[in-house]
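Supplementary Methods, section 5.1.

A reviewer requested that the exact input to the structure prediction be made available. We therefore reproduce it here, unchanged from the version used in the analyses.
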Amino acid sequence: MGCSSCSSGNDGQPKGCKNNGTCGTDGCNKLTVFDWLSNMSLPGGAKPFSCVEIRFKNGRKNFYKNTENLSLSIGDIVATESSPGHDVGIVTLTGELVRIQMKKKKVEEDSEDVKKIYRKATQKDIDIWQKARDREESMKVRAREIAIRLELQMKISDIEFQGDGSKATFYYTAEERVDFRQLIKEFAHEFSTRIEMRQVGFRQEAARLGGIGSCGRELCCSTWLTDFRSVNTSAARYQQLSLNPQKLAGQCGKLKCCLNYELDAYIDALNSFPKTETKLKTEKGTAVCQKIDIFKGVLWYAYEGEWMNWHKITAEDVNEIIASNINNEKVASLEDFASELIEDTKTDFENVVGQDSLTRFDQPKRSNRRRNRNKRKNKKRGSSEKQTVASNKSKAGNSENKNSNKSNNQPNKKRRSRNKNNGKS
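The structure derived from this sequence is encoded token-by-token as follows.
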């Protein structure tokens, strides 16, 4: 969300108002409320609601009375009552929506906590306020150095100056109780202002600092979440999540707030499931639950002693078996119920984008068995080819010997015939 002064600049680069959430239109505030009743006029004779919602640094909001009947609108900078002096804030909500917000947060209109609005801030008030805010970052660095020197087990996360610059509030986090009396003395001597220490939780610190969660989006506590409910490990157990603190913990070091979002839906779904501690008694043996799938509505059971063989059964069939066991009746076996379960292999999605698989060019890995078979085949082929070549060579040698013998025998035959002819003569 960005205001008009936070729009894009040249070449699409973000311009930025450089006000860190204090711009006049209140468009860059992380907890901005849209007044959907702003264009509606009040009925005749009705008086406008006298209270106004005002925001300070880092989303801190309070309700104030408009006793002077000032004409205020969203984005106006006003000077409000404080102790001591006055504070400067920005109007974030007016009209009947403020009445609804006060009723939601259980704040009475006549309560002492609802203070007054003095006036609209003058230019002098705004200049003092801006100078005080410019000092906060350097003071935070110096304050952390002093806390480290005093060896205090605490972390100073942020500093907020009052609008008139007369008081500075130090927000810190600590695991245990901290004795910061000496720290306050050194802060007062170092910064020459009134000091107030305020401890916040780790969730509140993460909300003030902001960041990106493991989901890739901004933290819920820094964008829209206002109430921080306690999160237990039972929420992860109900949702069958692995109890890995590195995956379940957020940036604050505590369990993620989003574990509570779908917890009620899981609890409602588990009401129709049988308890996992209940054992199924059959004629074949006693079966124990091994795993459940809330989305598919099935459970896996295994016989005692046969832990490797799991049987997939629907929750309705399991309830039926348990009901028969309560009546001292045993079913024949789990296979009778598991055989009726048909696996649905149809996919519920299609590749509408038309993109191919990222591994379409990768060659599938060939198993070692295939390689060994191919090697054996190649060896057999090579040996058979050698044998055929050797046999062919032997055959060729025999034929050559026969031919040579024939050629050698022919002149002997001619000589014999000549000798016979000579004797006759």
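The first strand starts at residue 51 and ends at 55. These observations are discussed further in the main text.
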